[in-house]
Structure formats: C-alpha cells, structure tokens
UniProtKB/TrEMBL annotation:
<keyword id="KW-0547">Nucleotide-binding</keyword>
<dbReference type="GO" id="GO:0005524">
    <property type="term" value="F:ATP binding"/>
</dbReference>
<dbReference type="InterPro" id="IPR013126">
    <property type="entry name" value="Hsp_70_fam"/>
</dbReference>
<keyword id="KW-0067">ATP-binding</keyword>
<dbReference type="GO" id="GO:0140662">
    <property type="term" value="F:ATP-dependent protein folding chaperone"/>
</dbReference>
<dbReference type="InterPro" id="IPR043129">
    <property type="entry name" value="ATPase_NBD"/>
</dbReference>
<protein>
    <submittedName>
        <fullName>Uncharacterized protein</fullName>
    </submittedName>
</protein>
<dbReference type="Pfam" id="PF00012">
    <property type="entry name" value="HSP70"/>
</dbReference>
Amino acid sequence: MAPQHLLLQSWAWAPSEASSPLFGDAATEQAVRNIDNTVFAPQRLLGASFESPWVQNHLKSGPPLIVRGEDGAALFKVRDRGRHRLVRPEEVLALLLEHLRRQVEQFTGVMVFGVVVTVPAQFGQRQRKALELACQEAQLKVLALVKAPTAAAIAFAVTNPMKGMRDVLVLDFGSSYCDFCVLTLNGMNIAERAIGSEFVDLDGVLLHYCVMDIQQRYGVDLSNQHQPLLRLRIACEEAKRKLSQWSQARVEMPDLFEGTNYTVCMSKNYFE
C-alpha cells in the first residue's frame, strides 16, 4: 500500500468539523483540539473487564474516559455531536477495519470479504470473540485467527526456505505487548513448542520518563493536565519510532505548560 504513516492505534470519534471518523495521522493531528473524542489503541481493551489491571493502567492515559459497562466490560465515553455516548472497543475497531478494507480495495482493485487476523499470543477466548465481532461489524469474514509470532514464523519459512528441521525463536515486540514463541520448522510444517507473552507499554514508559523529568526540573506535575499530557504522548510516540532506527531521539515541545518550552534527549540504551 502507499506509505501514509497510518497510526492505526489512533482513532477520532466524529469531530464536529468532520462528517466521518478520522484515523492514523489525521486523528493524531486533531487530537489536542478534540481531546475528549480521540481514542488511542482501542484494540488493547478488546474483551477486557473494567477491573482488569491492564484497563486500570490504561486509565492513566487521560481522556477519553473509560467507564464500566453494565456487563462489567470496559467502554469508551466520548462526546458525539454534543452528547455523551458509550462506545464498545469492538465498535471502534470495526470502523478501523472498514477503513483498512477500503484502503486495500482502492490499492488492489479487488473486493475484500475474508481476512486472516493475527492476534497477540495472550489473547483469550473472550478477546478473540470480541475481535471476531468487530470483524463481523466491518462485514469481514474471519478465515482464521493466527498468533502473531506464529504468523511471523510462517512468513520467515516462506521467505527463507531451507531443508531439514530447525528450531526458531520468534519475538514479536509491539507497542502494547511482547510475544515470544519457540517453534520447530520442518519445511512448511510448523510446530509450537513454547509460547509466552507479557504486556508492555512503550509509549507509556517514554511518557512517564518525561513527566518525571518535568517534575524534577520544573516542579510541575502534568499527570492530571490532559491537554499537555496528550501533546507529550504524541511526541513520545514519534520519539519511539525514531528510536527504532537511531540511537537517540529528541522530544521538543514549545509552550508545553505555562509558556515553558520543553526539550529532552532520549537514548535507546537507557530504555533497553
């Protein structure tokens, strides 16, 4: 597909100046102006209960509010055209999947009806059902749900064909989880021997570092100041991308708080 730097973990709920949701960079660019309606990483809340430690940690990210639904599920509380509305993570993800489908169809000229979806290794039955529901709402038939490290191993086996049996360690390090899998490859036959997973939040780690740095240098606590915190989170996400390629990245935020320009240099070695 054409490079558009789509940040698919970002989504905006029908801002007043637009007639349809925004995705990726378009959502991020309007997030500060539409802070109460911008949802980050909805897939992290799929099938999660409000009381789960992961959701409680997600609450620290600031608006939009995450509230407890009648069935105990975590829901987003947003303002849709002047009114509050509770939105299921599956509903957000369904809109995102519809956007992806249109992008693929426009690029390939082929109608998309079925999908194979990779999922984090730690996804349980409840989360898988929620993902399948999101695909159904996007009018996509789920052909298979494949664990992300297993999918990576399949791609490796296809692009690096070798004879004989070999053991492979696959590490899938995303923005919200880290999966690892030990596989035995024999041609195109793949057998899982061990698999594990752990939640991570790289954006949150970088954000926490900056918040603590600001508190130490300026004596200002931004943890409850949603607008500067959101600006800082977006800058940290950009820094994370740079650290994937380079050893250092600089966060520069003009007029972040009380007329103060904030600058900090981050090192890959420090966070590793």
